[in-house]
């Protein structure tokens, strides 16, 4: 890397980080999802704004290829891995036995029905308008179906926290349903990404060694690999916990290298996923999920290793990740108004209607069922991650990438607006002290305080 390339990388990162934090803080001040501000910060530096005003400067600072572009792409990848790790880590124990039946019914209805409608929708439209250079219609179908069915845990939990309803039964049900949905949909997305990765000319990994080349064989292999990876990771975590418990009955001591060890585990698992044909983002998500489960319902305090890692990720890598998402958006060349409007309408109707029907089937009141339908319609960070990884993999083209990102933004804004008005009419009475998903004291850190500065 030359001195010029080094300067461009450092200057680009400084500009992206500054823009993301400034606009993100502005949005947070007005009780809007900070992730949207971070994306807009990157948008200002991309072809939509800076590229229109000073195209030569924008092209020089943010080149499409070369060493500087590769370095920025690496930081972007690390940001995605840490985002998925923190998102998984935040999925602490939120389930309540008394809510088991309604949560399961709402999760099934809110996931299966939108996903099925997404599968059907791809068959009814001209895929040439949205398919990416990979040309894989099956992967495209899975991505679109996931985009319609996905729910954002970070954004909706931050909204509920800011509105003071994080301790309510409503919040517990929303987060419980979202956890179940996101685990399943991450497995499906991993399958779609694995199918495309295995078809590239420079493909690498176990599927190539086994000679898996056919479309059906690839779909079967990556489905089995994703599920098997998740199952083995859970078994390994359980075995490791038992070994630690046997070795130190009084509790394992914390070591200064815990953060470094966790980072090494994230990178090693992500590398293993690449070899297995599983999406590396899913590996980071599983590591975070198991780390959060090991920590239990107790919130990590400021001195905890997990808190250090969360702060490390949310202070630099995650904001840069979302800023790069905005940097990739070109609203002049890649914005299809009718595609975006149609997709937002279909996605909102499919998700909200199915969740409402599931809630009513679970015998929830009409008003609460409607609130659940709007809250679980927010796609936020997971919807944006889905858009970026599918675009980078060549599954979707630029207009569809823009549509998926804008869908995540619009649905998050709608959820915040709706719940704010629901609170004003006294819709969510608290369960009482100690209840709620975070199980924290009023002085405890916000459950999504670090993550949702970015997600």
TrEMBL record:
Residues 428-455 are annotated as: Disordered. It is found in: Membrane. InterPro entries: Cation/H_exchanger_TM (IPR006153), CPA2_transporter (IPR050794), Na+/solute_symporter_sf (IPR038770). The chain crosses the membrane at residues 6-28, 35-54, 66-91, 103-125, 137-161, 173-199, 219-240, 261-287, 307-325, 337-359, 400-419. Its main location: membrane. It is a multi-pass membrane protein. Keywords: Ion transport, Membrane, Transmembrane, Transmembrane helix, Transport. Coiled coil: none annotated. Residues 20-422 form the Cation/H+ exchanger transmembrane domain. PANTHER family: CATION/H + ANTIPORTER (PTHR32468), K(+)_H(+) ANTIPORTER 1 (PTHR32468:SF0). This is Cation:proton antiporter.
